[in-house]
Amino acid sequence: MAEMTMRDALNQALREELARDERVFIMGEEVAQYEGAYKVTRGLWREFGDKRVIDTPISELGFAAIGVGAAMAGLRPVIEFMTWNFSILAADQIINHAAKMLYMSGGQFNIPIVFRGPNGSAYQVSSQHSQALEAMYANFPGLKVVMPSTPADAKGLLKSAIRDDNPVIFLEQERMYGMKGEVPEDEDFTIPLGVADVKRQGKDCTIVARSLTVPLALQAAEKIEKEFGVSCEVVDPRTIKPLDIETIVKSVKKTNRLVIVEESHQFCGVAAEITAQVTEKAFDYLDAPIKRISSAEAPMPYAKNLEAAALPDVPKIIEAVKEVCYL
Amino acid sequence: MSKVAQKTKHEQALADGRTRFSHVESWEEIFDPEIAQAEYLKRKKSQIALIKKMDKALLREMLYQMVLGRIFEEKCAEVYRLGKIGGFCHLYIGQEAVAVGAIMAIDKKRDYVIVAYRDHVQAMVAGIEPEAVMAELYGKATGCVKGKGGSMHLFSKEHNFFGGHGIVGGQIGVGTGMAFAQKYQGTGGVTLCFFGEAAVNQGIFHESLNMAQLWKLPIVYICENNQYGMGTAQKRAMSIANIARKADAYGMYGEFVDGMDVMAVYQATSNAIERARKESLPSLLEVRCYRYMGHSMSDPGKYRTIEEIKKYQQRDPILLFKDSLKEAKVFNDEDFAEIEQQARKKVEEAVEFAEKSPLPDESELLTDVLA
């Protein structure tokens, strides 16, 4: 184990997989000579050269398509979007092509590709650079959707994503790149996709959180325990699709209460999906209505106070837990 | 009289080393079948000399595939009207010289083909059995993609056929990625990437051609200009007429090809493949052709006249090729009759196979979603 930032954990995963498999290459805007807009690919171009680490023009649709075609022809591309907001330009390739290729080719052409980059809010970057898009991508059969919340998870999940034979949407978080944690250095360390992790044990209320909202939920859980003596269990699904609903249901059956925290918008979102599945599978176990905390139903504002108001935070989580616990 | 002047201009353009037909400015000139025919007659003599030197079996296969494609598509129209084929069904009738001339020029062992949704004939020329194509159109388990893709999504990994794709222009980018992989892996292979002229108006065309030239990818972009994007004539959708000239925007080689002339398509594609294979350079071929049928089976075709269609049918690609083969004394009318007979039999067999094949098992609904 070594302590490192999430940025370095991701970098290590990429380096190890580039070294392990000649078919893996990284492509995107500023990933090579500039070393990544957020420095996730730092040092990789110098180590692996022009063939494996490739700067592209600003052509999201075009280079996503090159990734899809290269994957059909036997390579294992890692396509970086400088932010996931720009992936919307490439959505045709991700949704209409990558997600459907295996099916519409009758099982002949799988697409082993990873699309990755920062998702969700950053620091006052306003409406077009702050979106969390997991719900959109999770809606389509044929895609896997992954959202790590710790450096160790980031490394283990990214390695699994690169080794996976399917298109994987790998959603990082800019605000988390500098967060530190213990990370296994073993080159064979991976975390399977589709397996949730209970980040904090508890017995009174379940909080399901992902990505940036996991550290927020953990902070809230500590405060609630101290102030109200309520013990919260924090479940991080880590993979949105396939969703490990069993772990969530198991926790709810124990605590009988559920709060879901997310950075994306609420309508037709992941929290809505988890809510539906929990009511289908554990309705009789619930002692209170499920509470969702999501981003405000508005594009992200610029002003610092408005941005803060739009996003989930520790006080909002505490309020929600109090509400479902009737405190 | 004006035609004489145009010929002179064309000759001057060739002498200047400019893209073929790049001197042509007006829509009327570039799309006039009479001018195309005059150009054709000029090169016919050298073409017949070439035919005489070519392998007879290859020539026979080219004609067979064109005739097979024609009869197959006519049969599709027939059974579609009987409700045997569902959904969208885009027929290739009139464009046979493009698929045959281009795909017969590849090395099937290492070259890749990717196409749009008007894909039946291209799939068969690439090597997919007509039985497997017809069964797919019928939505049967024995179809080349197990009844999951239908008319627009024919694939065969075995034949390096990377599919029919239904989003206009999407496959231009995917094909560019296939060529990227061929270069990365050093296979020496080349990708043929087909799309219609309407796809040229999509952003993916620009993004792909820019990167293909920038990274010197071994790809041949084949724009099948059948002159209509669904019901919209090219001139109502594109600010300039000459698609081949768009290659200039990327510093790429561009060439205008007569898509009614299978030998012209074969030669231009062969040259472009050689450029891709030996120099790792992309090309853009604008292959002007004409579809006789509507955009799809549900298109009544009110946007053009019967006279216009008839004008192009006078230069029917199968007729032109037969005429040259006859003049070169490679085949005679008896041979043609035999080839047609063989193709008819094959199409009947394909229909019979499709009719008799089982529907996919319902358990197939949820397979092939993830690998």
* CATH overall fold name of chain B: Rossmann fold
Helix content of chain A: 25-40%
Multimeric state of these chains?
Answer: heterodimer
User: How widely separated are the two ends of chain B?
Assistant: 64 Å
Roughly how much helix do the residues of chain B carry, as a percent range?
40-55%
**Radius of gyration of chain A, Cα only, in angstroms?**
19 Å
CATH class categorisation of the largest domain in chain A: Alpha Beta
Overall CATH architecture of the largest domain in chain A: 3-Layer(aba) Sandwich
- What is the overall silhouette of chain A? globular
Instruction: Please tell me the CATH architecture of chain B by its name.
Output: 3-Layer(aba) Sandwich
Number of strands of chain B: 8
- Average residue-wise pLDDT of chain A: 98
Q: In terms of topology, how is this protein built?
A:
The complex is a heterodimer of chains A (327) and B (371).
Chain A: E1 2-5, H1 6-20, E2 24-28, H2 44-52, E3 53-55, H3 60-72, E4 76-80, H4 91-98, H5 101-104, E5 114-118, H6 134-138, E6 144-146, H7 151-163, E7 168-172, E8 180-183, E9 197-200, E10 205-209, H8 213-228, E11 232-236, E12 239-241, H9 245-255, E13 258-265, H10 270-282, E14 291-295, H11 304-310, H12 314-324
Parallel strand pairs in A: 2-3, 2-4, 4-5, 5-7, 6-7, 10-11, 10-13, 13-14
Antiparallel strand pairs in A: 1-8, 6-12, 9-11
Helix pairs in contact in A: 1-7, 3-4, 8-12, 9-10
Chain B: H1 2-15, H2 27-31, H3 33-53, H4 56-81, H5 96-103, E1 112-115, H6 120-126, H7 130-137, E2 161-164, H8 170-185, E3 191-196, H9 203-214, E4 219-225, E5 228-229, E6 232-233, E7 253-258, H10 262-279, E8 283-288, H11 306-313, H12 317-327, H13 333-356
Parallel strand pairs in B: 1-2, 1-3, 3-4, 4-8, 7-8
Antiparallel strand pairs in B: 5-6
Helix pairs in contact in B: 4-5, 4-6, 4-12, 4-13, 5-6, 5-10, 7-13, 8-9
